[in-house]
Amino acid sequence: MRRPTPAYAAAVQEGRPISELNMTPLIDVLLVLIVMFILLVPAAVTELEVNLPAHAPVSGPPPVTYRVTVARDGAVALDGVGVSDAALAARLAAIGPDAAVVLGADPQVRYARAAAVLGVVRGAGVTRLGFEGLGAGAP
């Protein structure tokens, strides 16, 4: 009595094309991808420290909001008046850390310049900082 052989072995012996898909390499690749995903996802998660306001009733008048803008050519203005970086730091330090500052930049300004102005604002001790958006009609 002849021993039965798997279909692919019989096809190889008879010279016929193999019509089955070998699943072992596919499962191996899938397991490697799953292990890589499990190892890399925790490394991709970054944390950003955010100071959320406490849920307490507001007492007193609202803080004064100052607007710092960076023009396309890199010029800085505080409430519409042009200032240098040193003068901006001095005026913001004189205002105090309780004042709210809104930073806005022209969409065409260089990122390095906007980041430098942000560093000046943070270096002046400002703790309440917001960013101005482009609006709904902006490109």
Topology, element by element:
Layout: H1 7-14, H2 24-44, E1 65-70, E2 76-78, E3 81-83, H3 85-95, E4 100-105, H4 111-123, E5 128-131
Parallel strand pairs: 1-4, 4-5
Antiparallel strand pairs: 1-2, 2-3
Helix pairs in contact: 3-4
What share of the residues lie within helices? Answer: 25-40%
Rg value:
32 Å
Overall geometry comes to elongated
Give the SSE string.
HHEEEHEHE
Low-confidence stretches: none
Distance between the termini: 80 Å
Q: Biggest β-sheet, characterized?
A: 5 strands, mixed
**Which structural class do you get from the secondary structure elements?**
alpha/beta
Number of helices: 4
- Mean pLDDT across residues: 80
Beta strands, count: 5
With strands numbered from the N-terminus, the spatial order across the biggest sheet is 3-2-1-4-5
Strand portion, in percent? 15-25%
Protein described:
- The structure is a single chain.
- With 139 residues, the protein is an alpha/beta fold.
- The protein contains four helices and five strands, in the order ααβββαβαβ.
- The chain has a five-stranded mixed sheet with strand order 3-2-1-4-5.
- The mean pLDDT is 80.
Can I get a quick summary?
The protein is α/β, with parallel strands linked by helices. The chain contains four helices and five strands.
Provide tags for this entry.
5-stranded mixed β-sheet; 4 helices; 38% helix; 16% strand
